[in-house]
Amino acid sequence: MRTHPLILLAVVAAAITTVTVFGQSAPTPPATPAKKPRHADAALDAHAPRAAASTAVPAWLVAGAASAAASPAGTASPVAVQRPAADAPLVDRGRYLAAAGDCAGCHTTQGGAPYAGGRPLETPFGTVLSANLTPDASGLKSWNADQFYRAMHEGISANGDHLYPAFPYNYFAKMPRADTDALFAWLQSLPPVANRPDRNQLPFPFNIRSLMAVWNLLYLDKATFAPEASHSEQWNRGAYLVEGPGHCAACHTPKTVLGGPKTGRDFQGGAFGTWFAPDLTPNARSGLGGWTHDETVAFLRTGRNAHASAYGEMGLVVQDSTSMLSDDDLLAMATYLGDRVASPTLSMTPPDTATMKAGEAIFVDECSACHLMHAQGQALAFPPLAHSANVQQVDPGTALHLILAGAQAAPTRAEPTPFTMPAFDWKLDDRQVAAVATYVRNNWGNAAPEVSADDVAKLRAKLKFDATASGHTKATPLTRPGPNTLGTADTDSRDNGTPQAGRAAPAGDGGASMPAAAASGG
Amino acid sequence: MAKKLPSVDALMIGFGWTGAIMAQELTDAGLNVLALERGAWADTSREFATTFAQDELRYFWRHDLFQTTAHDTQTIRNDASQVALPMRKLGSYLPGTNVGGAGVHWNGQTWRFLPSDFVARSHNLQRYGAAAIPDTMTIQDWGVTYDDLEPYYDRFERLCGISGKAGNIGGQIQAGGNPFEGPRSREYPNPPMAMSYPPALFAEAATGLGLHPFPQPSANMSHAYVNPLGVRLEACTYCGFCEKFACGNYSKASAQTTILPVLMKKPNFRLRTECEVMRINLDASGKRAVSVTYVDASGEEFEQPADLIVLCSYILNNVRLLLLSGIGAPYDPQTGQGVIGKNYAYQITSSVNLFYDDKILNPFIGAGAHGMLVDEWNGDNFDHAGLGFIGGGFVGVVQTGARPIETHPVPEGTPNWGGAFKKAVAANYLKSMSIATHGAVMSHRGNYLDLDPTYRDVYGRPLLRMTFDYTDNEHRMSDYLTDRSVDIARAMKAREIRVNRRMGSWDVVPYQTTHNTGGAMMGVDPSTSAVNRYLQSWDVPNLFVMGSSAFPQNPGYNPTGTVAALAYASAAAITQRYLKAPGALA
């Protein structure tokens, strides 16, 4: 299954070799400041004062301010985030947009300098290292706002190379020039960091960047976001954030074999590495149908709500992106997502009783201490499994990932406690994991397809594969210590760690210089 | 040659409860704070996960959370006539190591000392006259009162979400609480834990005898709790693995579950683990600490300068580092002069086992501080006239669990091994319980800490030598508590009881408590104390010494609540006064 995209894209690549070679022979010249703007809203010179821009800001861009009264009750935050006003300094607006777009999520490595790039992004086609966005020579120092706009809209680098859609320009294309200019201004204000990751690690034929021209024909809509007059400003603001900078569909919409979004399946959940990004449609079982808008806002702001905790990649999204947005903007996103077409409800045959019985025994022994006997969970700490959307996804990937590798709930300022699901990879075999997952997915009113031991074996193998292939441990077993155990722990523990950690240094080193007589001579 | 590192505003030596509390307070005050911990990084998520945290063999019997004696230990003797020998296997007490220190494997019994405990010398003199305190008993007043500490006790209880029932709010006695406790400003932040059968049986019998049983104040959560830092703790599962274990359920307050999620994220805080401090370096005047020398896990030596140094390690390491660094005058038991190492004290415990035929007690249901107690015979809650001792302790049933390897209560006369032993264990495991006594130890002239003349640690530094034994005061007091326990046990109508008195000299086995105290005591007079009432060194004013090393003697309660309250009080003095005018605090 996983190899299909590679094979198919290889076939496509072979069929269009002429085009791509032709394209390579005549690369687009690097854009210059003199280049004509491509879009009406890009008519602003990158160096022009921003006052002019503020008067031209469309209503959906300021919906956050306009709908302040709609701020959800009961979610007042001790660390409330304000969205910069439309006439705020360019860099301030850019900082906010960088958060909305979760740029740091991909462009910062674990423990690395912010936005200096180099994070390995695993795609079905191979690993892509993210670019350095800081204004260093190895980053965006030589870029201008036109080039940045083109990259965001067309996926074309300053030097004319095609970028891979691992950089989700097919979503960022929705952003108007005013926003990409603000973002660019902010990125240019960052401290420059020298880091030139090897950005061309994909195997043939995907190393032929110009192939992406074909991908763009299939999947890239260059039109910037246009609000729908029939909907409220709040709805339009949410639509812009979700469809544009937020690029939620990049993970939450299922993909074609070419890595493009599947038509008509918007937000129905998609496989993402070793995770399954869950259904965000209003489906009451597997989607957000059981969540109020306020609960969605709480999840995005704090990483927790009564139903779920943010783990894994979504944990990073909450930490780096959604927790940095205003409640108004989060409510706008919830409003828009709540107005999508619900995913179809599957009809399921209940699992056999032997499997359920086996699963129940494991659940009682291993799960009930935290999730409690009726899987009702403990509020904002150990999520309920009963009626959990995450548990009931069509694809059990995330549930299995959590059981096998464990995961830490993303600590945020509002919810700093790093509650952790422990890893069971070393404790439960494939059959046991399948049984307990099936039980949890089909008890207390839950219903979802049965999990087979084979499903577990495949993910187990994949988790190991990821850990070695990428050189960084994605599925870190939570049975070992590590510097990131508590969010962004600033500990030197591992830096000075040795196999003898916590034990004796070689005897005698200090002894000669520390005679007892001197020591007790006070 | 030690590599010299850039200076920091404040340096914590050791990163357990007091290190975390102090670092949290000092970073809040804007200081650039560094903590050095000799052990490794340790966190609930990975090191204490529920999938393996309840491993009795690994953690208790193989000491996975404790100090390694091959690295550092104490030499032990009962009196100065003996030659002290190194303790090569931990037993009586279990010093922790790693981030969180012994606060990771504590039970969570979180007490306030009695108001009279803080004025033990003057109070007893006043009530019982000079004859009550023999010349060899070197007890002192603390220089700080219960009322001084009340707000800081309260802070720690709020931090931890202590489960309990107040017995005295603002002077008003509260039904169901401990009527003997000092007045508290408000109720505990969490209701008491739910009681299992054994503590409930004890409470019923005690009430019948006219006593006032109350629930043990507990750092095990009766209910989920969000502390003032926004950190969450979850309801205890009563799994019975607190004592000697870390909690994987986020249900026991520790630095990890209350402070670190916030502290570790602060840009002005840094922690270096696996860095063991060798000594505190003074300037030429000997009046100012300028740096510490530490060795990292690879054996490399560093000098870390700091403006303010806070000694936050375990009491035994605190005293040893002071001695190794030549700070303060070492105590001389011959002359009684000097203070460092003086007034070392401990705890004295005993128990009474009860065996039933008709009651299934399910002793494995437990938590570290899950019990019902009476405080009628603690401190000076009762008239000691004619008893021949001062001090006291609490008595009660604390059902900490009944780990299978450790727990094999058998009636008197059962063989220690073989078929009859196994049969007796099987017959009695579910049907037995124990009343424990937990008594004070007064300080005595002959009980002290100093540097061993012979034995060295892995770095070549002299080991700490402990010279300690119980005196008549302790034995009489403990026997008195044991007798009271027998009275209650009889009222509980068990089939039979087994009395386990504390007999003879103190020994390094078996496990008793990790409540070592003294050696750097606080007080009002530099000639009789090592630190002032703010835990500031009299000799080196930019050095503060936390922990139970400050206790002039050891009252009849577990020490952590008071250790933490003293740390908060010290932090307040530092941030509100010392930082504005660094120097000796009057």
Give a brief description.
With 522 residues, chain A is mainly alpha-helical. Chain A has 20 helices and 6 strands.
The H/E string of chain A reads HHHHHHEEHHHHHHEEHHHHHEEHHH
> What does the radius of gyration of chain B come to?
23 Å
* Number of discrete helical segments of chain A: 20
Instruction: Output the structural class of chain B.
Output: alpha/beta
DSSP summary: helix tally of chain B: 12
Could you list the spans of chain B in which at least 5 consecutive residues all have pLDDT below 50? none
Distance between the termini of chain A: 74 Å
The end-to-end distance of chain B, rounded to whole angstroms, is 38 Å
- Here the CATH topology of chain B equals FAD/NAD(P)-binding domain
Give the total of beta strands of chain A.
Answer: 6
Here the CATH topology of the largest domain in chain A equals: Cytochrome Bc1 Complex, Chain D, domain 2
Computed Rg of chain A: 25 Å
Helical residue percent band of chain B: 10-25%
User: Which strand order spans the largest sheet of chain A, edge to edge or round the barrel?
Assistant: 1-2
CATH superfamily of the largest domain in chain A: Cytochrome c-like domain
Helix content of chain A: 25-40%
Biggest interchain interface, per-side counts: A-B, 62 and 74 residues
Mind summarizing the main beta sheet of chain A?
Answer: 2 strands, antiparallel
Secondary-structure map:
The complex is a heterodimer of chains A (522) and B (586).
Chain A: H1 4-15, H2 17-25, H3 51-55, H4 63-66, H5 90-100, H6 103-107, E1 120-123, E2 126-129, H7 145-154, H8 169-172, H9 177-188, H10 212-219, H11 233-243, H12 249-252, E3 270-272, E4 275-277, H13 293-302, H14 312-320, H15 327-337, H16 353-371, H17 397-405, E5 407-408, E6 420-421, H18 430-441, H19 453-469, H20 516-519
Chain B: E1 3-4, E2 8-13, H1 17-28, E3 33-36, H2 44-47, H3 56-61, E4 74-77, E5 85-86, H4 120-128, H5 146-160, E6 168-169, E7 172-173, H6 197-208, E8 214-215, E9 225-226, E10 232-233, H7 255-258, H8 260-263, E11 269-272, E12 275-282, E13 289-296, E14 301-311, H9 315-324, E15 348-355, E16 371-374, E17 393-398, H10 419-428, E18 432-439, E19 448-456, E20 462-467, H11 472-491, E21 496-500, E22 543-545, H12 560-578
Parallel strand pairs in B: 1-14, 2-3, 2-14, 3-11, 4-20, 14-22
Antiparallel strand pairs in B: 4-5, 6-7, 8-16, 9-10, 12-13, 13-14, 15-18, 15-21, 16-17, 17-18, 19-20
